[in-house]
Every structure is written in structure tokens, then in C-alpha cells.
Automatic annotation (TrEMBL), chain A:
Heterotrimer of an A (ELOA, ELOA2 or ELOA3P), ELOB and ELOC subunit. The elongin BC complex interacts with EPOP; leading to recruit the elongin BC complex to Polycomb group (PcG) target genes, thereby restricting excessive activity of the PRC2/EED-EZH2 complex. GO terms for molecular function: protein-macromolecule adaptor activity. SUPFAM superfamilies: POZ domain (SSF54695). Keywords: Nucleus, Transcription, Transcription regulation, Ubl conjugation, Ubl conjugation pathway. This is Elongin-C. Pathway: Protein modification; protein ubiquitination. It is found in: Nucleus. Residues 19-78 form the SKP1 component POZ domain. SIII, also known as elongin, is a general transcription elongation factor that increases the RNA polymerase II transcription elongation past template-encoded arresting sites. Subunit A is transcriptionally active and its transcription activity is strongly enhanced by binding to the dimeric complex of the SIII regulatory subunits B and C (elongin BC complex). Transmembrane segments: none annotated. Belongs to the SKP1 family. GO terms for cellular component: cytoplasm; elongin complex; ubiquitin ligase complex. GO terms for biological process: ubiquitin-dependent protein catabolic process. The gene is LOC744141. It comes from Pan troglodytes.
TrEMBL record, chain B:
It comes from Pan troglodytes. This is WD repeat and SOCS box-containing protein 2. The gene is WSB2. Keywords: Repeat, Ubl conjugation pathway, WD repeat. May be a substrate-recognition component of a SCF-like ECS (Elongin-Cullin-SOCS-box protein) E3 ubiquitin ligase complex which mediates the ubiquitination and subsequent proteasomal degradation of target proteins. Residues 385-421 form the SOCS box domain. Pathway: Protein modification; protein ubiquitination. Coiled coil: none annotated. GO terms for biological process: intracellular signal transduction; protein ubiquitination. CDD domains: SOCS_WSB_SWIP (cd03733), WD40 (cd00200). WD repeats lie at residues 143-165, 166-201, 210-251, 252-293, 306-340. Residues 85-104 are annotated as: Disordered. It comes from the Eukaryota. PANTHER family: WD REPEAT AND SOCS BOX-CONTAINING PROTEIN 2, WD40 REPEAT PROTEIN.
């Protein structure tokens, strides 16, 4: 992603390629920023004015989401990748499978993340 | 969701975001190659079109008692050059010249209904068939054809051979449906006012007759979870039957005229029915509630002085990801609907359309017309939201009542039961 070379104080600014998603129990997931922006919520959290007060602009804290269902977070990341891959592409879009056992919790997360 | 008419892009705030929505483009049109001598008395309509569940074959009853089976995707010659340039539509017509893999099935009489069985049965079946050579080998992709005099012929797709003849119906077999599970149970709907259940594992034995309809039964559809059977008839009612006990669960009332087409959503949570009364009704099949009605009215009423709305519905079908509907109506339009909106999102001109179906992996809609032609149209490419994907996964095994019993917020329940989008 080539953007302007602006920096804001000590933050990496919009150039950062990766963002860190930090869940309520401290677990961290590093995800390519482009993909994390799939989530309207993450996008808002990364671009709002409040961000620059944080020590590092490329971190997002989710105080409500615990990581005790790791497969859910994995599924979220996979969905982000799927969405970026097939948006603005002319190839046939395959189905994205959701395992029934995590579907309910994943739905809650998807609802919160607006994706 | 908002439709931005200038750019024709749908902005998704709801369930699924269409990547881009443009009017359906005609990809290809196939016309039957006529034999030198044909019987003028037998009709030429394409009453049914169907894709096999794995998307590898397409079948259409091209009139004059012939069913054409062609492998999918279509060969290069049928697709117009430069299709990728979406800004122009182009038509490529071709006579049915026949590639080596095409099959022509001569059914001997008018073909009304078509259905593919899911691919293929478990390997143990093949072993069994080898030891019982006199039994037709149905461990393969088969096509059932519903005929004018009530017979049903079962054909092997790979070879074009006739496998079985099922007798029982006394009148036109208008529609057919296999259970999606691959159990080789076939349901047929007939003008003799009955539906019949056939077991292809047992030489096509008729295992049940479902009576109750008062007029012609026009269509039947089995829910993807194989639990329910829907049938719709001339007396305006829609029946829901249990596929476990073959008994009537409930009747859905609401249409004002003959109901001629029905389809379940891919997660079995929704049922749509189409009628000559110009409406498509969306139902919750578990509770029998009407969720919404889609009115097929004149596109531009200001321009038309006539009071006549010639928009009887002929066919309705769900898209594979469960977010769109395609309808064919007598007002010469193919319409694409997004589930949550009250007006169509796209139109395409189509004369004398009779039937439609989506390609199982999305992207293409096939339609059949009165002159025996089929057309293939581009369908909206959809990248479902994760919310909708989760909903679809959950509803594939949860009934509406089970959803209502979950310990989740009310808004989530409304979303999951398709009351909101």
C-alpha cells in the first residue's frame, strides 16, 4: 500500500502494513491492515481522531471479545482475507464455509465488527 | 441498503454486498436445431431448465419431446468474445450443433419437468450393483423427466441411456424434485392433483401418494435439509409436507390465483412462491408466517395507459448464497430481487419466459422460453457478509423455533429469522 509519507507524532501513521488486534484477555493477533479494514468497526477505530492519543496507532483493543475460542478469531482473519481477495475481482466467488459449531459466536463477533 | 441508480452499485449495510450490480447481460442463447421432420402437434416450449447440483451439466426440455443435456461450462463457441467488457451486451446465437459430450434424449412425448439427482451415491452402491447386474445402475448422475401422459423416465446422464420408467401418475408430471441428500428419493407433482414419492434404490418403487390438492399441482420443491416438501397448485394454496412422515404439516394461504413455482432458500429458512396473481410471497416455512410480498407491476406505470397488468409469474428461484431471487413474468421481464428490498434491483427483457434457475455456484441464470430457446444471463456476483454466512450456517440446522429459544438478544433473533436483514 503506498500512501503519503506522513507521520503523526510517534505513530506509524497510515503507512503501517500490519495492525495488532488485542483481545480482552491480552491475546494479540497481527493482521495485514488492508484485510482488517474489511471490518467497519476496525476501520472506524483505526481512523478516528482518538487513535493518535494511543501510543501505537496500529493497535486495536477489543475489550469485549475474549479469545477463548481461537477458531473464531482464525475464522475472522480468514474472512478478511477472503473478502479482500474477491472484492473487485472478476473471478467466480467460491463459498466461504462456516463451521456450525462456531457459527453463533462468530455471528456475534461479525455483528460487533459489522462485517 | 441503498441503490445508487447512477453508478448502479449497491452499497451494503446489510446482509451481503453485491460486488457490482448491473442489468443482467445475455451471455449466450441456445436454439434447438430442428430435425427435418417434426411433429407440428407437439409443442416447442421449454417448460424446464436445470443444472446438476455439482454444476457440471445443464439440461433443458427444448420442445418436440427432446431433452438436451450439455456439459457445463459451455464451450468457447457459445460465449461471445469480449464478454469481460461489461459495458456492452452481446448476443451470440447458435444452432444446437452438438459437441461429442452433448446428449439428446428423445422422450417420445412433451417433457414438462426435469430434475437431476445429486452426484453420486456412496461406493458401496457400486459394489452392490455389480453383484446385481439386472438392476439398473443408479450410482451415477441421473436425470428424471416428467412427461405428458404421467410417465417419468430416468436417464443416465453420462451415457444418455434410459434406466427406468416410473408409472403411476394419470396426467402431466409438471415438476420433479430429488432429495438433496443423495438418497435417490424422487418427488413428482402432477396435474392429476397428486404428488408421488419414488424410491430409485428399489427399481423406482412408488412408496407414497400425497393427496389433498384440489387442482393441478404445478410445482414441488424439497428443502435443502430434506425435512420439508413444498407443493403448490391451481387452487391458490401452498402445501407443506413432512419428508419424514409424508404427511401434511400445514397449508399456506395468501395467493389470489394459481401458484406455479416455489423454491426454498439454501438454508431452508425461507420459502418463496410465485403465482399468476403477479405476486411472489416469501414465507417462514416453520411458522407459516408471510414475511413479505414482491409485487410485479409495470416498470413505468406513467407510460402505460392500459389497466391490464400482464405480469403473471411463471417462475421464481433463489440464488445459491441465498441473498437474491430471480423471477420470470409474463410482462416480458426477468427481474433480480435483493431479499431485503421491495423493488427489483435489475431487469432484463425476456419474451415468453417460462422458467429460470441459477447456476449452483452463482454468477449465471438460465431461462427457458416458449419457443424452445434457453438464455444464460449474468447474475449479480455476491460476496456475502460474514453475518449472513453465519446466519446461513446456523439456519441450515436450526428451525425458527430453535432460534427463538437461543439466549441471544432480540435483534439477533430477528436477524436470524430473516425478520430483519
Amino acid at each position: 500500500m503506498d500512501g503519503e509519507k506522513k507521520t503523526y507524532g510517534g505513530c506509524e501513521g497510515p503507512d503501517a502494513l500490519y495492525v495488532k488486534l488485542i483481545l480482552s484477555d491480552g491475546h494479540e493477533f497481527i493482521v495485514k491492515k488492508e484485510r482488517a479494514l474489511t471490518s467497519g468497526t476496525i476501520k472506524a477505530m483505526l481512523s478516528g481522531p482518538g487513535q493518535f492519543a494511543e501510543k501505537e496507532a496500529d493497535e486495536v483493543h477489543f475489550r469485549e471479545i475474549p479469545s477463548h475460542v481461537p477458531s473464531k478469531v482464525y475464522a475472522l482473519c480468514m474472512y478478511f482475507m477472503y473478502k479482500v481477495r474477491y472484492t473487485n475481482s472478476s473471478t467466480e466467488i467460491p463459498e466461504f464455509p462456516v463451521a456450525p459449531e462456531i457459527a453463533l459466536e462468530l455471528l456475534m463477533a461479525a455483528n460487533f465488527l459489522d462485517c | 441498503m441503498q441503490v445508487d441508480r447512477e453508478s448502479r452499485f449497491l452499497r451494503g449495510t446489510g446482509t451481503g454486498e453485491a460486488v457490482a450490480v448491473e442489468e443482467p447481460l445475455l451471455l449466450a442463447e441456445l436454439k434447438p436445431g430442428r430435425p427435418h421432420q417434426f411433429d407440428w402437434k407437439s409443442s416447442c416450449e421449454t417448460w424446464s431448465v436445470a443444472f446438476s447440483p455439482d454444476g457440471s451439466w445443464f439440461a433443458w426440455s427444448q420442445g418436440h419431446c427432446i431433452v438436451k443435456l450439455i456439459p457445463w461450462p459451455l464451450e468457447e463457441q457459445f460465449i461471445p468474445k469480449g464478454f469481460e467488457a461489461k459495458s456492452r451486451s452481446s448476443k451470440n446465437e447458435t444452432k444446437g450443433r452438438g459437441s461429442p459430450k452433448e446428449k439428446t434424449l428423445d422422450c417420445g412425448q412433451i417433457v414438462w419437468g426435469l430434475a437431476f439427482s445429486p452426484w453420486p451415491s456412496p461406493p458401496s452402491r457400486k459394489l452392490w450393483a455389480r453383484h446385481h447386474p439386472q438392476v439398473p445402475d443408479v450410482s451415477c448422475l441421473v436425470l428424471a423427466t416428467g412427461l405428458n401422459d404421467g410417465q417419468i423416465k430416468i436417464w443416465e446422464v453420462q451415457t444418455g441411456l434410459l434406466l427406468l420408467n416410473l408409472s403411476g401418475h394419470q396426467d402431466v408430471v409438471r415438476d420433479l424434485s430429488f432429495t438433496p441428500s443423495g438418497s435417490l428419493i424422487l418427488v413428482s407433482a402432477s396435474r392429476d392433483k397428486t404428488l408421488r414419492i419414488w424410491d430409485l434404490n428399489k427399481h423406482g418403487k412408488q412408496i407414497q401418494v400425497l393427496s389433498g390438492h384440489l387442482q393441478w399441482v404445478y410445482c414441488c420443491s424439497i428443502s435443502p435439509d430434506c425435512s420439508m416438501l413444498c407443493s403448490a397448485a391451481g387452487e391458490k394454496s401452498v402445501f407443506l409436507w413432512s419428508m419424514r412422515s409424508y404427511t401434511l404439516i400445514r397449508k399456506l394461504e395468501g395467493h389470489q390465483s394459481s401458484v406455479v413455482s416455489c423454491d426454498f432458500s439454501p438454508d431452508s429458512a425461507l420459502l418463496v412462491t410465485a403465482s399468476y396473481d403477479t405476486n411472489v410471497i416469501m414465507w417462514d416455512p416453520y411458522t407459516g408466517e408471510r414475511l413479505r410480498s414482491l409485487h410485479h407491476t409495470q416498470v413505468d406505470p406513467a407510460m402505460d395507459d392500459s389497466d391490464v397488468h400482464i405480469s403473471s409469474l411463471r417462475s421464481v428461484c433463489f440464488s445459491p448464497e441465498g441473498l437474491y431471487l430471480a423471477t420470470v413474468a409474463d410482462d416480458r421481464l426477468l427481474r433480480i430481487w435483493a431479499l431485503e428490498l421491495k423493488t427489483p434491483i435489475a431487469f432484463a427483457p425476456m419474451t415468453n419466459g417460462l422458467c429460470c434457475t441459477f447456476f449452483p455456484h452463482g454468477g449465471v441464470i438460465a431461462t427457458g422460453t416458449r419457443d424452445g430457446h434457453v438464455q444464460f444471463w449474468t447474475a449479480p456476483r455476491v460476496l456475502s457478509s460474514l453475518k449472513h454466512l453465519c446466519r446461513k450456517a446456523l439456519r441450515s440446522f436450526l428451525t425458527t423455533y430453535q432460534v427463538l429459544a437461543l439466549p441471544i438478544p432480540k435483534k439477533m433473533k430477528e436477524f436470524l429469522t430473516y425478520r430483519t436483514f
